[in-house]
Amino acid sequence: MKKVFLFVVLLIPAVLAAQQFNEYDRKVFNEGQVLMRGDLQLAAEGTPWSAHDPIRIYSIHDEGDETIVTFSYSIYFDSQWATFSKGIYIEDEDSGDIYRVRGYAGGLTMDRLLIIKGCNGENILVSLRFPKLRKRVKTISIYDPGHKDDIKPSNSMSDVDKPLASKVNVRKLRKMYREHKVNVYE
To answer: Sheet holding 33-36: strands in order across?
Structure first.
């Protein structure tokens, strides 16, 4: 009986702490960009789903003077926040050239949190705009070191030391785009 009582006494503060939101969190959620299932494109059937490694590179293509990189993002709750850092960049593995993110493709802004609803257990597609990669770029890595102006809730557990994608073949990513005709947010 003492063990059960001790467990309950220790559990209550942990549950209360997990449920507490500060004013910043309320503001971030109230001003967030709500995207319902119908507003998003889902990844092709068979795309790996993972709660432990939810963001994976999906495809790449050029539009005008920009390169669009699309990520598959595994959603594990019916209402879940998502954010991509303003600090994300692509590095050309051969030359070391850096291409910094310009924003989301499709008109979304990086100064508001994305709130995804109705996609529990599915992979959604999120596209980011970068300066156009030079034609000679063959292999890239994508890093997310974070940015001082990033919008994310106080309970964010992002791993900024881990690359989003390492040593990825650009030709293979362009082929994925041609095969799946990815048009995110349209």
So the answer is: 33-36, 114-117, 79-82
